[in-house]
Write a structure and sequence with these properties.
mainly alpha
Length: 459
């Protein structure tokens, strides 16, 4: 055997061995990512199911014990308003606390305890105390939404974040579709009080799973927590959203688009009445939620861009508008359902890349605050959309669907303007050719005498 033949034989053997090593390494890497993702889902899914289902359970409980739908609406408002009002405080504390597992676990447990306590208190304690109890629970709600999502960048490697945000967006879709149905089903089977108590227990089970998350601790820093409640710190997240073009664009574009999406439950109820299709009131929203979950999973499998998520957000808004505008013009319910699925599908990539944009462009000292503020603004916009469309119900379902579609186009246009135009006195985010942010340090407001930490923007 010649030397050339020996070399060829060695390369022939070496090839499959190296391929096997690479395959084993890839499998081990995937398993390492899958484990923290599974732990995260064990926290997020039950907590978000409780958050979505609690709104229905509170109304049913108020009707059963106090025979008052207005009280049910007041309790929902008490639970929802803190999503945006308390977000700066909760986010600032979460960004500075050393023991994050303890902070998030206690916050989720307090939320679940508040729901369970309300299940007992309504009808037994004065209404004012019950409202205060729900308000206290609602102050912990930002940790259920944006607070949890902001942890993904700390428990997963950067290469896994695009798919992780897509998977996380499906938990919101799943909770939005199943949470209210679960609450209604439990209310029929075991009563509304027991249903609300069970949802509280679900949130507490998510809190107990926080201990499984691999969250690195933070070093002790003098004045860390006392500085968290200073006005400059509480306003830092909102100021960054205003000053940072990509964050500003995706935040306001998604919020304005959410005004229309929040109105869809009211519109589908009108549509069901006008077309004598009782199933459509819940069926169309279920179709929309199923489409959103499929869209999120599709984007998780094949992301469109890893470097410019804000562009995907702005591109998806017209993709939502088109099928909804067509649905306003057709009468066949089968076609209408398919159009709702298509519109829902487009919200999957939008929400996935919205989360990715927040993580990509938010300075680390403000990450949780920006996530909680963004989630609160979207929740508030959805509530405003439902209320506004309810007042315009006399126009009919078709014109209202057209208005929802127009809101998406308006949101996309505003997003483009906010992304590309900034006043001269507003700091722009500098760009590298690959679409990432340049290394520019962010100075975090701190307490007097404290050495404030700086960090380059995450690339």
């Amino acid at each position: 055997m010649t030397l050339t033949e020996v070399r060829g034989w060695l390369f022939t053997v070496r090839g499959p061995l190296m391929t096997g090593r690479i395959s084993m390494a890839a499998t081990a890497s995937s398993a390492a990512v899958a484990t923290p993702t599974a732990c995260y889902l064990g926290v997020a899914i039950p907590a978000r199911l409780a958050d979505e289902g609690a709104r229905v359970a509170l109304v049913l409980l108020a009707l059963a014990r106090e025979h008052s739908a207005s009280l049910g609406g007041l309790l929902i408002a008490a639970l929802m308003v803190p999503h945006v009002v308390a977000a700066p405080v909760v986010g600032a504390l979460a960004d500075r606390v050393r023991r994050r597992k303890l902070f998030h676990g206690v916050g989720l447990a307090a939320y679940g305890t508040g729901l369970a306590a309300t299940a007992w208190a309504l009808g037994r304690l004065p209404t004012a105390l019950v409202v205060l109890l729900v308000l206290a629970a609602g102050c912990c709600a930002p940790l259920v939404t944006g607070g949890l999502t902001s942890l993904l960048a700390d428990i997963l490697p950067e290469r896994a974040l695009t798919r992780a945000f897509s998977i996380d967006s499906t938990t919101y879709n799943l909770a939005g579709a199943l949470g209210p149905a679960l609450a209604a089903m439990l209310a029929v089977m075991i009563g509304p009080g027991a249903a609300l108590f069970a949802l509280g227990v679900a949130a507490m089970s998510g809190a107990s799973a926080v201990i499984l998350l691999r969250l690195p601790g933070r070093p002790a820093t003098k004045h860390r927590m006392s500085a968290a409640l200073r006005p400059a710190v509480l306003a830092a997240g909102a100021r960054e959203i205003v000053r940072n073009p990509p964050l500003r664009s995706v935040t306001w574009a998604s919020s304005i688009g959410q005004i229309g999406i929040g109105a869809l439950p009211v519109i589908t109820a009108l549509l069901a009445s006008e077309r004598n299709a009782g199933w459509a009131a819940g069926g169309l929203m279920t179709a929309f939620a199923v489409g959103a979950m499929v869209g999120s999973l599709t984007y998780a499998v094949r992301p469109w861009t890893p470097t410019r998520p804000e562009r995907v957000v702005l591109m998806c808004l017209p993709l939502i508008a088109l099928p909804l505008a067509v649905a306003a013009c057709v009468t066949a319910m089968a076609l209408t359902t398919a159009l709702f699925v298509t519109a829902g599908w487009a919200t999957g990539p939008l929400f996935s890349t919205l989360l990715a944009a927040r993580e990509r462009y938010a300075p680390q000292p403000l990450r949780t605050q920006i996530f909680t503020l963004g989630a609160g603004l979207k929740s508030t916009a959805a509530a405003a959309g439902a209320a506004g469309i309810g007042a315009l119900g006399g126009l009919g379902a078709a014109p209202l669907l057209g208005m929802v579609a127009a809101a998406q186009i308006l949101a996309a246009g505003l997003g483009v303007v906010l992304l590309t135009h900034s006043p001269r006195n507003i700091r722009r985010t500098s760009r590298r050719p690959d679409g990432g942010a340049q290394d520019g340090a962010f100075q975090e407001p701190g307490a007097p005498g404290e050495n404030t930490s700086t960090r380059s923007r995450k690339n």
